[in-house]
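does this look right to u?? S-adenosylmethionine version
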Amino acid sequence: MSSTLKELHNEITEKLSGVVEFPRREAELLLMAYLERDQLYFITHQEVLVNGRDSRLLEWIERRSRNEPLEYLTHCVSFYSREFYIDEGALIPRPETELLIDEVLASVNPDEALTIVEVGTGSGIISILLALHMPNARFIAVDISPRALSVARRNIEAFGVSDRIELREGDLLGCVNEKIDLLVSNPPYIAQDASLEENLSYEPQNALFGGTIGDEIICRLIDEVYRRKIPLFACEMGYDQRLKVQEYLKSFAVQSLKFYLDLASFDRGFIVKANHE
Ligand SMILES: C[S@@+](CC[C@H](N)C(=O)[O-])C[C@H]1O[C@@H](n2cnc3c(N)ncnc32)[C@H](O)[C@@H]1O
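got this back:
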């Protein structure tokens, strides 16, 4: 049965009310993704007829009304102004992780032929973005989850950077023997017993939880930086983990340590230059 876009928008808004925070906006995003049209089309074609009983659309509405993230329905996520493939095998990239890319790019010479290792690559967005900005760097992107690695593989191929990003399945740096110039990571950093919003239950749990306290993987990565004599480490962290990172690094020789904030002015990550002399 056909309805106008406007009628369908109202109908979906009603179904999402009480489930998502901004039902009207979410209904608009869902319809734009379904119609593969932009916002201008949406605004200017309110009277166009749309088949509101299409099974794919009905399935999306049903799943979204159970608070499943839109990105897992559309298999598309925007990051750093580019579109990536995504599915339930990998964490949905967050806007704050764009800052990690900026911080790395500001800390290196982008033309250098560096060996960069990313731990916990997920959908591959960090290594891919860095590879696009660092034409001479080569990357080893590690993840413990084979499902995440297949999402990353798909994105790496789509962006034509397979010749410079090698994927490996493993635990932290266990599968990397090469000399590393830069370690980058957005590791899981949430405490095991933290109470989370319901929609996070759709995302891989090993992408979210970093251990009992939450910062365990970050600390293990710092240990690896010193064990493996890695000069530079860039890492995303939780807004409340700065003190712990500062304390932990006190037992190591540090040349410089910078914490960076996210757009809401919360601590979000750090870059440490290690002193290995
Ligand atoms: C927070 S997600 C980050 C994904 C992606 N890099 C991003 O920024 O959107 C963390 C990733 O680390 C992976 N991971 C968790 N524990 C790991 C471990 N011990 N070794 C390697 N990867 C791990 C998870 O599978 C997940 O893909």
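The first strand starts at residue 2 and ends at 4. idk if thats expected tbh
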